Amino acid sequence: MAFTIRHTSGFICCSLEPSRLQQLELPHMVANNTDPKRTQYAITVDAKEKTSTGISAHDRSMTVNKLASPITTTDDFYKPGHVLPLYADPQGVVGRQGHTEAAVELCKLAGLYPAGVLCELVNDDGSMKRRNDCREFANTHNLKLISIEQILEFVSPKINLKK
């Protein structure tokens, strides 16, 4: 988490399926979303256990781990907090080609619980990293890079076969 915070905007989000966020009783942040990208934010949370103020990398890691646990309940969180849960489109990247859906889709493809952490990479001047910047960052830090388009291409044939 510290690495993520150091190289990003620090605006840590955790993508989850709508049914899970509803189970956790985490409503949308606003009733009328005017975001042109249609990002569906839920109210922010902090884990109650093993955390202090909620803002440290450790505390946000604990919060994300709680969000990614199928046994967590709404009582495990303080509201508001420092981690932003996101409602993923129920149809994944087929329904919306966003980072929110890509994170959940990758978890599912890996056989993991559908909860993905994401944050926007930034340059030293504070501007957002773009594709070429991300490629350079991935190479520098020995990370893998995948595009939403690649995920969509991978899952689309599987969806067509199910019909």
Explain this structure to me?
This protein has a four-stranded mixed β-sheet with strand order 2-3-1-4. It is of the alpha+beta class. It has helices spanning 2-7, 18-23, 57-67, 99-109, 131-140, 148-162, and strands spanning 13-16, 45-47, 77-87, 115-118. The longest helix has 15 residues, at 148-162.
DSSP helix fraction = 25-40%
Proportion in β-strands: 5-15%
**CATH structural architecture:** Alpha-Beta Complex
**Main pleated sheet:** 4 strands, mixed
Function: Catalyzes the conversion of D-ribulose 5-phosphate to formate and 3,4-dihydroxy-2-butanone 4-phosphate.
Pathway: Cofactor biosynthesis; riboflavin biosynthesis; 2-hydroxy-3-oxobutyl phosphate from D-ribulose 5-phosphate: step 1/1
Keywords: Lyase, Magnesium, Manganese, Metal-binding, Riboflavin biosynthesis
Cofactor: Mg(2+); Mn(2+)
Summarize the structure.
With 163 residues, this protein is α+β, with helices and mostly antiparallel strands. It contains six helices and four strands. The longest helix is centred in the last third of the chain and has 15 residues, at 148-162.
Keywords:
single chain; 163 residues; alpha+beta; DHBP synthase; 4-stranded mixed β-sheet; 6 helices; 4 strands; globular
Provide the fold topology.
Blueprint: H1 2-7, E1 13-16, H2 18-23, E2 45-47, H3 57-67, E3 77-87, H4 99-109, E4 115-118, H5 131-140, H6 148-162
